[in-house]
């Protein structure tokens, strides 16, 4: 076992454990061909530790050797109009702000390369995307002359990186050794004036809004803005900007190569973020318990009334929700990504079905995992002419 006993960002050994959940699927986003195989998936424990020194939260029970990202890893959100809208406007902002025209771009953890393609199209840039889960034979990977996808991790083997701009979205929270990861990028860049945009889930949102289903085994790190700024500064980057985005669910950070060890910009107060994180953690465990108990009660009532429920949202939130609560009233998980249809949920085995399946299934209740998507889901239900009771997960807590 290769478990994290010290803070993976600042090496402090004074971490404080505050939350545990055992036996979760190690991959929420791996699809299974049958319910039996899905239930037999590998599992791992989550033991969250708060580092009082840098403000990072990490899973001290995380074991990298359990994980291997492959081509059955399905994490694409681009089928959702709401998420697509966010990515499109982000790409336009980045192209404008950093004058990305005729430039060399790199994306680390590019998935299908949708975002990189957008950046390249918008500014007539050339892009290289790295991702071990890239499947170059996927049909919807239309030949894009500007973009090269490399089905591999980016690491020191690549020797050098010709990039004016590097994007890396929703990757860093999966990285067991973040300092080494950023140092490698720093070395591959060399002296070139490269700008970076990184995006990670926002721990403050997870804690404050009790977005408890975002706590998943694949994420060994949980960042709040202060911890992220410190990590970048300690890795030899100059932080240009940091902000909460996507209704505060994500943090975006922009950085450049710079000698300044301490990044100072605006009135950013890392200590305030640290204190706030500590405050949220103090109430988190009781809040988690309350939310868990409320859902258990809700499902017991549904089962008593023999109601049929479906969960809408086959991303990690939906999968974690099902694994933590194990509701027998839920036989199906809905998702708009056609590549997930017919597959089964890691750990609990429900089949993943398209929205049109609801016409046949006629559920009594639809549970929405993320309020951000409530509008588009409501519209789909209206289009399908069905009107089940809707419960939005995060509005359902006192
Ligand atoms: Zn630390």
Please explain how this structure is put together.
- The protein starts with 15 loop residues before the first strand and ends in a 6-residue tail after the last strand.
- Helices cover 30% and strands 22% of the residues.
- The strands form three sheets. It has a seven-stranded mixed beta sheet, with helices on both faces.
- It is globular, with a radius of gyration of 21 Å.
- The protein has three domains: 16-66, no CATH class; 81-278, Vaccinia Virus protein VP39 (Rossmann fold), CATH 3.40.50; 305-395, NAD(P)-binding Rossmann-like Domain (Rossmann fold), CATH 3.40.50.720.
- The longest helix is centred in the C-terminal third of the chain and has 35 residues, at 270-304.
- By secondary structure, it is an alpha/beta fold.
- Helix 2 packs across helix 3 and helix 6 (225-234) packs across helix 7 (270-304).
- Strand 2 (43-50) and strand 3 (57-59) form a beta hairpin.
- The structure holds zinc ion.
- Zinc ion (ZN) binds at residues 7, 9-10, 12, 51, 53-54, 56.
Top keywords for this entry?
10 helices, 7-stranded mixed sheet, 16 strands, single chain, globular, binds zinc ion, 398 residues, alpha/beta, Rossmann fold, 5-stranded parallel sheet
Bound molecules: zinc ion
According to DSSP, the number of beta strands is 16
Shape: globular
Q: Major β-sheet, in short?
A: 7 strands, mixed
N to C succession of SSEs: EHEEHEHEEEHEHEHEEHEHEEHEHE
Percentage of β-strand residues:
15-25%
The CATH homologous superfamily of the largest domain is termed: Vaccinia Virus protein VP39
Summing up helix and strand content along with how strands pair, one would put the structural category as alpha/beta
Provide the gyration radius in Å: 21 Å
The CATH architecture classification of the largest domain is 3-Layer(aba) Sandwich
Report the CATH topology name of the largest domain: Rossmann fold
Total of helices: 10
Q: Quaternary status of these chains?
A: single chain
């Amino acid at each position: 076992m290769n478990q994290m006993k010290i803070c993976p960002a600042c090496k402090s050994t004074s971490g404080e454990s505050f939350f545990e959940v055992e036996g979760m699927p190690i991959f929420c986003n791996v699809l299974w061909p049958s319910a039996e195989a899905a239930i037999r998936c590998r599992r791992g424990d989550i033991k969250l530790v708060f580092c009082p020194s840098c403000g990072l939260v990490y899973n001290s029970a995380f074991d990298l050797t359990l994980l291997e990202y492959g081509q059955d890893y399905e994490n694409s959100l681009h089928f959702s109009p709401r998420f697509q809208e966010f990515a499109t406007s982000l790409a336009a902002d980045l192209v404008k702000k950093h004058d990305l025209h005729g430039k060399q771009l790199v994306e680390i953890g590019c998935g299908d390369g949708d975002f990189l393609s957008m950046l390249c199209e918008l500014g007539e840039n050339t892009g290289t995307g790295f991702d071990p889960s890239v499947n170059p034979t996927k049909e919807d990977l239309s030949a894009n002359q500007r973009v090269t996808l490399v089905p591999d991790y980016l690491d020191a083997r690549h020797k050098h990186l010709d990039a004016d701009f590097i994007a890396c979205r929703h990757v860093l929270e999966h990285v067991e050794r973040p300092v080494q990861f950023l140092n490698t990028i720093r070395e591959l860049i060399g002296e070139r004036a490269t700008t970076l945009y990184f995006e990670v889930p926002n721990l403050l949102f997870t804690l404050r809004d009790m977005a408890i289903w975002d706590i998943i085994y694949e994420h060994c790190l949980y960042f709040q803005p202060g911890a992220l700024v410190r990590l970048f500064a300690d890795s030899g980057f100059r932080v240009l900007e940091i902000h909460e985005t996507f209704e505060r669910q994500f943090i975006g950070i922009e950085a450049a190569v710079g000698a300044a060890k301490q990044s100072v910009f605006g009135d950013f107060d890392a200590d305030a973020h640290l204190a706030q994180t500590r405050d949220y953690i103090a109430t988190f465990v009781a809040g988690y318990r309350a939310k868990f108990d409320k859902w258990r009660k809700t499902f017991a009532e549904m089962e008593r009334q023999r109601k049929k429920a479906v969960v809408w949202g086959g991303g990690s939130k939906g999968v974690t929700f099902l694994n933590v609560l194990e509701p027998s009233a839920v036989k199906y998980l809905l998702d708009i990504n056609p590549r997930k249809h017919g597959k089964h949920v890691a750990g609990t085995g429900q089949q993943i079905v398209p929205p049109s399946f609801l016409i046949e299934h006629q559920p009594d209740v639809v549970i929405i995992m993320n309020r951000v998507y409530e509008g588009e889901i409501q519209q789909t239900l209206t289009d399908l002419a069905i009107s089940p009771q809707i419960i939005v997960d995060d509005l359902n807590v006192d």
